[in-house]
Each structure stands twice: as structure tokens, then as C-alpha cells.
User: Fold these one by one.
Assistant:
Number 1:
Amino acid sequence: MVTTTRIFNFSAGPATLPLEVLEQVQRDLVALPGVGMSILEISHRSKPFEDVLEGCEADLRTLGAIPDGYRVLFLQGGASLQFSMIPMNILPPGGSADYIVTGAWSQKAVKEAKRVASVRIAATTEADNFTHVPTQSELQLDPAAAYAHYTTNNTIFGTEFHYVPDVGAVPLVADASSDIFSRPIDVGKFALIYAGAQKNLAPAGVTLVIVRDDMLRRTPSTLPTMLQYGVHVENASMYNTPPVFAIYVMRLVLAWLMKRGGLEAIERKNARKADKLYAEIDRTEFYRGHARTDSRSRMNVTFRLPTEELEKKFAKDATAEGLDGLKGHRSVGGMRASIYNAFPEEGVDALVHFMHEFERRNG
Ligand code: PMP
């Protein structure tokens, strides 16, 4: 039984999980029904966990319409380890990869790829303080690139690609950490998709990798075992002990998502939530959105107030009213409302109401 009052949690990640999921975790924590042991205690080689892992993959495949020819992996090390694993596995030493740079996370991905081989910047919006993502015509792509990498949603700056870059025959790699499964995704356009799960899919501790079979043949045999995608594929993500609890919760989150109509339905809900917040930002000069209109993220809504003092007061007053986690990332300043899949629409309504009142009192 949930006994404490929950507030609205706008954190960028780890982030709000569906209440029904938390309640089920709590109900079944001491002993999984029919198992008599906690999910925190059972062996990852046990039948109940095997069922969880298989079910999780099956639900991911159904929800994401993941075609045959793609492998689904549950890894550790976060999206940050993927910044390294990707070039180590699929960027040959003499080769070059294209990176589209749209924020701090893309920059970190570039930094790690440069340790392996050469990197070309196919586009960057840094000069505009990452207020937008590039358009297709602004991409300067190398047709000989080993792959092209981009960040689908920029968690810190609050911008999002509303199209999938056309990179021709070059394998497309995406960091989808902060908008994975927030809308339908055409997996067939990608060679590799990765995401730290702690925003839209699960608690922290598991990283989802969806990789096309042909990418597995590039790995140099000298690469340490734990860093090879092929090893994790051959061992069905059980080469070593996987993050059992996080995968278990992911399974419950996916079931929650399916029950609510899958990715089309969640996209409609996410659009509705984001539209309400942007409408409030656009209603008045008091609030200024960071992202350019055409690049606005539906997951992380970033905005400024007239002064830093007011921004501090906004965060403090909001917390006092049960709206937590609204302080923006230090590199952008201002406010950030992260409203991932599980974030309730009532929380958005409460924030819009608070913004209105805050302006009335301080504007
Ligand atoms: N990429 C993006 C887009 C992110 O938002 C984050 C985390 N906020 C990361 C990568 C890094 O993820 P992790 O902490 O799982 O390494």
C-alpha cells in the first residue's frame, strides 16, 4: 500500500514512473507471486527472471515494431558507455564517423568517438547556443562515413528532432535516451538505437541497445569481451549478471504502456501535455522558451524568466507547492520541465496554473 503523498516530479532523469507500476513493485517486492522470493534476491539464471527478460524483449519488439534482423540488448554503463562502445565496435581504426552536434550529450559522444578514430561534424548548432536542431538541408554528410550519429532529443537544451535524418546508405545511429518510446519509431531506418532507460522506460541501471545484425560483424576481435556487442547478443544479455531489478521494472512499464494503447496513444498524450506548456510560455512575454519553435522538445520544456532572481524564486515557490525538479541545467539556466511518458497530465495542468499565478504575483 502506498502511504506517502506523491508530488509532481519534473526531474530530467531518473524520472517519474507510473504510479501503478510502483504500486505493483511494492505489492510484489517481498515475494513474487508463485515464486516466494523477492525480485531483489532471485538468480538471474532462474526461470522467473528468464521469463521477465524474454517478456521484456517481446514487449519491446511489439511496441516498437522492431523488425527481424535487429537484436535487443539490456546493458549497463548507461548511455555514456555507448558513447565508447559504438565507435569501438563499428568505427574501424582508419575510418571516419559523422556526428550531428545538438547539445552537451552529442558533444560527449564526439569526445569518446575521437579516442577511437576520426570524427567529422556533419552539423552543429553550438553557435546558436543549441536553441535548435539542424534541418535536413543543413547536414553536410560524408557518404563514406562508417556511420552517422545524432541525439534524437536534447535533454538539457529542450530541443528534439521532428524528423529522422536521411543519411543515405550510411548506417544511422541514435542516442534516444530522452525520447525513446515517446512516439512511434521506424526502427528500420536505424543501424543502432540506444537509450539509458531512466527517463521513459525504467529506473536507472539498464541501458537499452537495439542493433542491426550487420553492425555485429565489424567488431575487432581484440576488443575486451564486455565491450563487444556480439558477446552480449550470443549470451542474450546474460554474459554477466544483468541489472535484474531495473529490467523487471521495465517489464512493468512496458505493460503499462501497452495497456494505454502503445506508442500512438502515448504520442497523443505527450503532444497534448507539451502543447499546454508551450501555450502558457507563448501567452506572455514574462516567459521565454529556450528552444526555437520548430525544434521544441515534447519531453523537456526549457524556459527563462525575466531575471535570475525570479527564476530562483520560481523554483523555490514551485517546490513549496509540490512541483519539484524544475530548476534547469546549469549550462542553460532558467527552468526545465521534464514531462516524460509517465508524467501525469494533471501535473502539467498544475504547472500551467502555477505559472499563471506566479506571473500575476511577480510580473
Ligand atoms: N544521452 C542523453 C540524451 C541523456 O539525456 C543522458 C542522461 N541524461 C545521457 C546520454 C547519459 O546517460 P547515462 O547517465 O545513462 O550515461
Number 2:
Amino acid sequence: MLTLTLESSCDETSVAIVRDGRLLLSNAIASQIPVHRRYGGVVPEIASRNHIRDMYPVVEEALEEAGVALGDIEGIGVTSGPGLIGSLLVGVETAKGLAYAIDCPCVGLNHLEGHLTTARLELESTGRPNFPYIGLVVSGGHSDLYVAHEMGDYTKLGSTRDDAAGEAFDKVAKMLGLPYPGGVEIDRLAQAGDPEALDFPRPMWTREHFDFSFAGLKTAVYEHLQERGVPEEDEALADLCASFQQAVVDVLVMKTIEAASRRAIPRVVLSGGVAANSMLREEMHRAAEQRDLGVFVAPPELCTDNAGMLGPIAEHYLNRLETTGFQHPDLQATDTTPLGRRAAE
Ligand code: KG4
Ligand code: ZN
């Protein structure tokens, strides 16, 4: 099946063409990062307006790059939640319009399920994990740990009790006067820093449960800055970034590895924007190797928001529709997430 997928839940307008839910033929992305940078974060109204401007050129770019015509598309998948409502509306209405025009089915998809199953794409650089796997989804809005039993069947093991990991990165970056999105900047500056220079807390450092908390860590950085001020020297700034990043990474790695060992599942998958973090990728690989676990993590551009990541779930849900021809998703259904539907065991 040849599918077209659309993602516009936040500030990336993205359209991908995917064959059989695993072969990425194109993945066009128009990023609004430079626009929102001047405000220090995403401004929802501006994001919606830019999605309207960019959506059709991005559709055309994706079709052209894949070398296919709109009429060749057999099914459409679109992020219908969670996300900014104005941004989602642009993607969903575009998807419905295209599906209506070419008389093909269209399904609404869960953004987090897209992140969680990105690794099921066939990528040159990484292997493709079999089920079951432990899936860590770490983004700007979520930090969740799942068992992915198979497509559409997941058990949520834990999630953040307050801020998401990405939010902690972004807020700490803001305190340091770094530009949005902060995770990328902290990652970059931390490369030159000493991760042991400062001793920040590792919140929820327990093997008793799989929940996370990052608000206290954010406060610890805030208090440190109140006391000592924002470092003026490059070296001290790098040390601070590296030490903060190490605290986040330690908790994410420990809990993910612990989940794999408790569940006796031999592979882990990292996803979401924070999975682009170089230290997280390295340390997860190192910890997993010691225990003979497989680690699967897509290249950074497939970790941050993009439509390509929706390929596997688009195929999965389109194949399960009972009728063919034009069908459209209902935004009312965005809260009925298929994630974690299986009761915690
Ligand atoms: O998945 P994503 O693109 O959007 C959401 O669904 O939220 O994730 C965005 C988050 C932001 O908080 C951003 O700072 C973070 O991912 N991020 C990173 C890196 N690249 C993006 N965090 C740490 N290191 C990175 N290299
Ligand atoms: Zn995301």
C-alpha cells in the first residue's frame, strides 16, 4: 500500500510517502523553529497560520521527491492528537480534503504512537526491532515508558508525574539564555563540558516504579543559578549543561534498562525529540550492551516531529478499516488514545 502521512501537531509541517508501512520514499519537513525562536517557544496561533501557508507546498514536495502522483496514493494517515488544536486542524482538514479528492480512506493517528513505532520503518542505518520491545518516548510534552507487544497493542509502564524530559531541557535552556529549542543547544554545549562538574539530583531514582519527574531537577538548576548566576565562561556553561543533561540521561537509561530486565524483553527502542540527544543515545547503547540488549534508535531527524514516523501506524490502521473509499477521521476521537489500552499487568 502506498500511503501519504501528514504531521502538524506542533511547529513542523511534514508530509511523507511510505510504501507498505516500512519503506520511506520521502519525508518533507518545513520547520518553523526560526519563527518561534524569537518568542522563546511555540506560539500556537502563529504555528497554525504557518501550517496553512506551508501545507500544500510540503505535500507537493513529498510527492515529487517520492516520484509518485497524488492519484497513486491508496491511503492517508494524519496526526489527530495530541497536539495544538489549531495546528492539528490544518493537517486533519488537508488530509480529509486530499482523501475526498482521490476517494481513498483516511485515518487519524496518535502522535505518540507514531514516535513509539518509528523504529518499525526500514532504515538503512538501523535495524528494525521485532516485537515485543521496551519503548521510551521522550518529547517536549511526554516522557513515557511502554511495552510494545505488537502494532496497536501497548502497555504503559510509567510516565512523568510533572514535566516532560524535553520540557526540562527547554526550560533550563531558557534560564541559561539559550535559544529555542533548548534541547539541541544543551546537547551541543554539553559536548565540551564535564558531566560530573555539578551534582544535580536524579529525581525518582527508584526501581520500584517506572514514573519520572523532572520538575525538581529544573528547580535545582534554577536555585543553582540564583546562587551563582548564569556562568559567563564558556567552560562553566558547558559543565552546567553537561551535568544537567547527565542527570536526565541517568534516570532515563536506568529506568528503561530496568524495565527490559524486569519484563525479560531483549530490546529497547528510543523515540521522540529527546531521543535525538547524543548523550542519551550513547549511554543507552553502552548500558544495553552490558546486558546484551538490542537498542534501536532512529536517526535524529526521525526522532523529532516528522510525518515519516507515522508510516507504520498509518499502514496498520488503514489495513484494519472495514470499508474502502473515502472515510475521514473525527477529531472528537483524539483523546481515545490506543496507547496503554492494555491494562497494566
Ligand atoms: O518529539 P518532538 O520533536 O516534539 C514533541 O512531540 O514534543 O520533541 C521536541 C523536544 C523539545 O523539547 C526539544 O528540546 C527536544 O525534543 N530535543 C532535544 C534534542 N533535540 C530535540 N533534547 C535533547 N537533545 C537533543 N538533541
Ligand atoms: Zn513529537
Number 3:
Amino acid sequence: MQYQRSSTLFKAAQEVIPGGVNSPVRAFKSVGGTPIFVDSAKGAYLFDVDGNRLIDYISSWGPMILGHVYQPVIDALTQRAKKGTSFGMPTALETEIARLTIEMIPNMDKVRFVNSGTEACMSAVRLARGYTDREKIIKFAGCYHGHADAFLIQAGSGAVTFGAPNSPGVTQGTAKDTLLAYYNDLESVRTVFEQYPEEVAAIIIEPVAGNMGCIPPQEGFLEGLRALCDQYGALLIFDEVMTGFRLAPGGAQQRLNIKADIATYGKVIGGGLPVGAFAASNEIMNHLAPEGPVYQAGTLSGNPLAMAAGLAMLTALKEDEEMYTRLDQKTERLHKGMEERISTTSLPYQINRFGSMISLHFTNTPVVDFASAAAGDNELFKAYFHGMLSEGIYLPPSAYESYFLNDALTNEDIDFTLDGFDRVIKSL
Ligand code: KE4
């Protein structure tokens, strides 16, 4: 495979866009080499500007769960665009997608739409602080909730990849209100609460972590968080930007049968357009402006094009619950095939999987939190990433990311991937 045109385009981009990208992880900094510029996509395939076809295991970092150019979404967008693209006024469409969202996710009464997962998580934290009249939040090392200041404290995803866990520009004033605990370590959370018994507004967590690679919650961990929040009067915020509408129609709350007080969404809910959302009970949501005192706003929040795409996506997911079983089965096929092949080598490895989220870590230590994820051999990962790319398989360009499978993947695609995987691991 050659990437001449990507390389030319990357040089041009770097002249006018910082790092040549609009989101750092796309720049391949942690795996080296030139980022791939995409020309188009269809189903499970990406077509880059050099004419290479790549099997897509990122699905735009989650949104394209039904594959690229999913016709009902395209049709909804095309139709809606003819009526105007933005008004800054309420539309019935927003009520329709809000009603469907509340129907699909358990335990929530109202939802507010915003434009990104970051905005959803940032707003959820402000709402929790306003509702509880407390200032501190607990987050987990390695979890990523977007790039709002309060979260860039040992963030996962891009920030960790860059090895700059505390981003410059985040003030000490902000950092002091974000307390750190460790994933799958309930004791570390209890210790924080004992230190600040009446100051914690909320815990925010990825119920299944996807920004340290995929890390499932261990038995009793989330239940323990629920109990600690109830004991200390803090809210439990599930950041379901990744897991929402991916692990089940009702996301991790449904799949894990745990009730959050506030849940945030992104990615899938927008069908590929910029949408974030956060949802909670009437009691909590009625604290939000214009109903209540907690301010939050957005010019393009509830944008009709984004709502049309999101509504078409959620409608398709609600009407085809079998999709979740198919997606889990495809991910299991990939997992088992990888396991069969890599277990015959002397490579250190762990494969973590939950639903259609999966990740490979080059370490012999179980990956259960950020520290164990960070212990993976990144040099091996880089060689693995580029080996798979040369086989026509596009994986997340970071060891701290989950793969995101989509329903357009066929068993033949999975088997093609496994053949490539076999050649690559034997070359490492
Ligand atoms: P956005 O602001 O990127 O829409 O969402 C932030 C966010 C919040 N919560 C979770 C659990 C997330 O995974 C994300 C964003 N995910 C990353 C990929 N791990 C987005 C990719 C990127 O930064 O370009």
C-alpha cells in the first residue's frame, strides 16, 4: 500500500491546521507515520485518497455502528436539508428524538441535546454541582470525558497518548476540584469520599472504559459506586458517550442493570453528525435553564440536520434489536480468532472485550485499570498497528483506544482481518 497522496495532503494541512488535524489522535503521533486521509466510505470499508480500501475498526470512533453511508440516515439528512439547515428555534423533530431517546434509555425523564460528548459531560458536571451545591467531582485515571478543563486530569485517550496527563492551560483552581480514583478500585473511591465527605457533587465514569483500550468493570465495582454515591449524597454520572446505544439500546445502564443519576451520550446518538446529550430525572433536569438556575446553551444544539440523522439512527437501532446480538457475535468471532492465533506465539498479550468493544494489549498482566493499560509494550503496538494497516485493516492509532465494530462487517471481513492478524503477529 502507498500513501503518497495522504502524505502530500498532510503536509498541506499542517500549514493551516495545528498538527494538520482537528483532533490530535488522528495525527498518528503515538504510532508514528503519516495519517491516512480518507476520501469516502461505504459499509465497513474506508477508501483513502490513495485508492486503498481499508476495513474500518474505528467506525468514526463509534458513531457508524451500522456502517458508513447507512441509507436511512442519508435519506433523512437529504430530505431535511431541503427544509433549511438551522433556525435557532425549536422544531418538532427535537421532541421526536428526545421522546425516542427517553424511551430507549432506562431510568431517565428528560434529555438535553448539545453538540459533542465533551459538551454533554461538561454540562452534566455543572448540573450535578448546581443540583447538589457541591464543588468536587471524582473521575478515574485513564477515563476520558472530553477536553473540558475539569477532565484533563490524567485523562485517557489522546491526552494519555501524548504522555501529558495534566494538560497545560488547566488551572490549579480547576484541578483542585477534580479528585482522582482508580478504575476497578472501590477502595480508592471510598478513600476520596472519606476525605471529602460532604464536598463531592458527583462521580463521573465510563461504565465500560474505552479510553484505556476496553476495560470492563469488575464484579461489584459499579454497584459499589452506586452505594457510595447514595451514602455520601453524590450523583453518579455514567459517561455513555461510547457505550450509549452501542452495548444495548439502553446502553450500559440496561446492559449492566445499574441506575445512573445522569447519563451522557454522543457518537451513535448523532448518526455521524455532531450531537451530544445528557439525560436525568425530572427532579435533576428541572434545575437546568431555562427551567432552573443551572445555565447551559448552544446555538446549534438540536440542529435539525443532526437531529434528523440521529433520529434515523436511533429508529433503526430500536427496530432491529437483533443488531446487538449480531454485533456481539462478530466481536466474539474476532476475539476468539485473535486469541487462537496469538496464543501460539511468545508475544505478551491481553485481549479485553465487552459487547462490541475490544482491545489488544501487549502485556501479560491483566489490564484492569490505567496503570496496567500503560504497562503495555507500545513499541510492539506501533509495529502491530502499521502491520495491520499494511494488511488493509484500519485500527485505532493508539494503544489507549477500544476498537469499534460496526454491523456492516461480514464474517468474511472478520476472517480477512484474522488472516492479516496472523501474518502480522508472526512478524512481530
Ligand atoms: P467528543 O467531545 O469527542 O464528541 O466526546 C468526548 C468523549 C466523552 N466521553 C467518552 C467516553 C469518549 O470516548 C469521548 C471521545 N472519544 C474519543 C475516542 N476515544 C474521540 C476521538 C477523538 O478525540 O478524536
Number 4:
Amino acid sequence: MSGASREVVLGVGAGIAAYKSCDLLRRLQDRGYSLTVVPTPSSLNFVGAATWAALSGRPVFTQMWENVHEVSHISIAQSADFILIAPATADLIARIAGGRADDLLTSLVLAAQTPILIVPAMHPSMWTAASTVANVALLRERGFTVMEPDVGRLTGSDSGQGRFPESAAIIELFDALTGHTQDLLGKRVLVTGGGTREAIDPVRFIGNRSSGKQALAIAKAAVLRGAHVHLIAANTDTSHLSGVEVTHVESAKEMGQALSLEFSTCDILVMAAAVADARPLHQYSEKIKKNQLDVIELEATPDLLASLSAIKTNQVMIGFAAETSELIASASAKLTAKGLDVIYVNDVSGGAIFGKDTTQGMIITRTGAHIALKEVSKDALANLLLDHAIRQLG
Ligand code: CTP
């Protein structure tokens, strides 16, 4: 699986272990993967489509007769980098082994060219039945990876081999199969995100529209690649982020202070925050009256990136720019002025990008390379930028 793309189809069969796949999905999302869930129709008796749609943040289809105009079985199969089927029942395994295409999941499996991991869960007597044994052997022969189910207590009083394995064991095998690289192991990545707020008085502030989503995506992607990650978050909800050290800040001044504590020990700085360019010259300690808002004198905030590149040692520095026109010229000028290795320029014409899960724009490197990106996920951009940083680190 390439660094840029981490699209996974999670196929869900009709086993009670379907509920455990909710945890699996969450853990894979935490590791930077984007998941499309394709449950079999009968699995919806255990976990409904609404749960999968809410957890994955994507629409959920089970049948060929839904969303026909998009030819879902082909489009989903083509966009996936990996297919994980968990849990897989004896019936689902039999249908896949037989080349059936009687629901959306089996159809897309038949059409897929990507690696497929099947995680069975069933009663031991079904797992050891001659037909299941033959079907599993056939699938393995054809290149599918079929995980061994765990041994232990089942839903009822019986025990034996057939239990759904622990999420951690599934993820370990998934990582091994995807060749997921820990190419940032031992590296420290410092990320800033969100938008600073510059107080006018205790109630009002000057702020901006940055949601912080891009920084969260970078932090997640860097964790997934083995880095120690510190996020300086300006007015951004980080409650869904795991494995990341977080400093919450409000203003450009606080962000500057947090950066000066962390910068010297980092290997890569990704400055995705929208730092306010100006702040009120005077901050009132009491709420002011509206007639005093007629004139608010401003002063420029210090350019945080420029001051860090003046003291940098070996850090790779990545900056962002949001432009509505002359993307390349404006961003290249910022890259030089701020001493950056790479800059990503968001094309924000028409208010696009803010708060969204996708972005479009251009990566520009110190060597003058331009890579145009049209409608990519913020997760994918995160990995592309980290790829560049790793190349710079040598
Ligand atoms: N940045 C910074 N310190 C500031 C303002 C911006 O470090 N006071 C960083 C941002 O985090 C971003 C990059 O500089 O990575 C470019 O930000 P942008 O606002 O596009 O650039 P400015 O230099 O503020 O230029 P403009 O006049 O276009 O706003």
C-alpha cells in the first residue's frame, strides 16, 4: 500500500462478531486508514447500516440494486487498496470460494485486484466441516489470506477453534500484509494546526476559518508511520486523536511559545496552523462597549515559521499557504521567504476546503518541483507531505 493512499474496504459477514468489527474499524481509522464498509444483507441483523455509516462517515450499501448508476461493485473494488473481511462466516467463505456474486460484497471481491484478508468466525464444528476446510484451502491457493480463528469460548457454552481474533492480532497481520512501513520510527514530528484567536477583550477575538482537520490528519499519519508526534492545536478539538502529545493554545503568541519549547528536538515541523497575521495592539481586560469597536488598532504578529527557520539546525520545514489566485507564484515566494523545504498551497477560491475532508492544491518543493493535486483526502495529502519530508531527511 503506498504512503499516499490507504483506502480499505471492510466487508462484514453475518456473525455475532460483527459488533467487534466496529472496534476494528475505529482502530484502523486511528491509524490513518479510510474505510468503506460493505456488510452482507444478513449481517445487518447484527449491526445495522446506520451504525456502519455513522462510524465510517460514508454511505453504506449492501446490494447491487442500490446506487446502480455508480456501478458500486466495480468502483469500490477499483478504489480500494485492501479488502478486509471480518467476520467471515462459513457461508460467506463458501460463496467467495464458489465465485458467487450474489450481493455487493461478493461481487466486489470477484472484481477486485487488491490483496484480501479474510478473518473467519464461526462455530468450531462449522470451521472443521469438510466443505469449509476445502473452501479455505481453495481460497489460500488463490492468494487470499485466511486468518486462523482463535481457540476458546464461543457465544454459547461451546468452545474450540472459531472465535473472532482480537483486533490487535488482526491489525498486526493487516500491517504485515499491507507492507505498512514504520518509516518515521524514532523521528519526532511537530505539527501545528487550527486557527489562532487574537483577543480584543474577554469576549471578542479576531480569528479565521481553519478547522484543524489537515493537522489532525498529519498527526495521525505520522503516528501510523511510527513517529513521536506533538501537536500544537489552536482552538481545535483533539478528543478523537490517540497516540499524540497535544498542547492546546489560543493565540499566535501562545503558539510561538509552545513552538519554542518543542522545535529544537523535532526532526520535521509541519506548520498547518492558520496563524493570525495581525492582533489588536491593545487587549482590554474588561468587555468594551460596541462604540469602542469602531477603530481597533492592529499590530502584525511575528512570522513564526520565518523566526524558526532562522534558528533551525537539521529540521525539515513544511508550510502551508491558502491562496485564491496565482497559486504557484505566491506560494513559491512564501517558501523562499520562510526558508521552507516544502509548501502546500490550498486553492481556496470560492471558499472551498475549510472544514472539509478533501483538499485541492499544489505541493511545491525547494527544488522547484510542482505537484498538482485535484480533490484528494486530507489523509492522503498528509502522507504525501510526510513522504517528501522523509526524502529530505535522507
Ligand atoms: N505563518 C507563520 N506565522 C505567521 C503567519 C503564518 O508561521 N504569523 C505560517 C503558516 O502557518 C503557514 C505559512 O506561514 O504555514 C503561510 O501562511 P500564510 O498566512 O499563507 O502566509 P503569510 O505569510 O501570512 O502571508 P499572507 O499575506 O498571504 O497572509
